[in-house]
Amino acid sequence: MITEQQKLGTAFGAHSTADDVLTGIDLAGTTALVTGGYSGLGLATTRALVRAGAHVVVPARRPDIAEKALRDLPRTEVHALDLADLDSVRVFSERLLETGRALDILINGAGVMACPETRVGPGWEAHFAINHLGHFALTQRLRPAFVPGGARVVTVASSGHFLSGMRWEDIHFRTGYDRWLAYAQSKTANSLFALHLDRLGADRGPRAFAVHPGSILTPLQRHIPREQWHAQGWVAEDGTPAAGFKTPEQGAATAVWAATSPLLDGHGGAYCQDCDLAEPAATDDMLVGGVKPWVRDPEAAARLWDLSCELTGLSAF
Fold first, then answer.
1. How do residues 224-246 score in pLDDT, each as one tens digit?
2. CATH assignment of 18-312?
3. Closest to 6 measured CA to CA, from 270, 245, 229
4. Which of 38, 153, 233, 256 could form a disulfide with 69 if both were Cys (CB 3.0 to 4.6 A apart)?
5. Residue 79 belongs to what H/E stretch?
6. Active site residues
7. What whole-number distance in Å separates Cα of residue 31 and Cα of residue 29?
8. Are the C-beta atoms of 198 and 207 separated by less than 8 Å?
9. How far is CA 144 from CA 27, 106, 204, 205, 261, in A?
10. What confidence tens digit (pLDDT) does each residue in 136-178 have?
11. Neighbours of 233 (CB within 10 A)
């Protein structure tokens, strides 16, 4: 049964921080893995989880930079991982499984946004390959490590999904590249992935969620010229974030909430926003958010799952 996208009425909202949603939650003895956990929202996520007592594994494409960013944080460890390289995903996963450690939380937070046309692996479009396929492969390979019946997988999606459903006829943009549509499709894929992963893991786990963190200015926007920030209304005249934008600590809150909140027991597969279940989008305003119907389509989710298995060479659940 698909979770109804209706607010639960939590005590949190758009202005809540990751520390706020972890108030009273003791994560001592748990292990979390956060991709992208050394920069932007990921770093805010790692800090909050550590403060709540968790041990956090941070895979990084640039381990030296990650180690510098996390050097003052206890209970963190950095390992090399390039989500664009499925061999790298395999090696990282095998080494983690060899340790015998259990995973309580996996937050798939790393990604790229509006980058120039880039091909990885066998010519895959980079947004789809990194934001979706890399995390799909990572999650699949780490399944033996998930705490039975208690693990959660949270994938960071976006209201960017408003711009595109799945382009089944041209997933990899072989005929005409559009960086925003490529990003949008990957965010739709993130949500569909969470929907089907939860369906498959509903009995034995993991439970899965997709989250929209809100609008935040982080290194994710590095491919977008600053003049476009102004043109799109992301920043005020003085260069500060526009009204409605969140701090990284606020942006990290929904993912941390989805990973830990007892209110979500029984609501797996949901799309979350502002530390609650998102409601169906009433407008096309991405700043307002909500969830579009194409990311709640179980048939599309199953089709994407099968395609992802085929592309990555990994078996079904």
1. 555 565 455 555 555 566 556 78
2. 3.40.50.720
3. 270
4. 38
5. strand 76-80
6. 183
7. 7
8. yes
9. 21, 13, 12, 11, 23
10. 999 999 999 999 989 999 999 999 999 999 999 999 999 999 9
11. 12
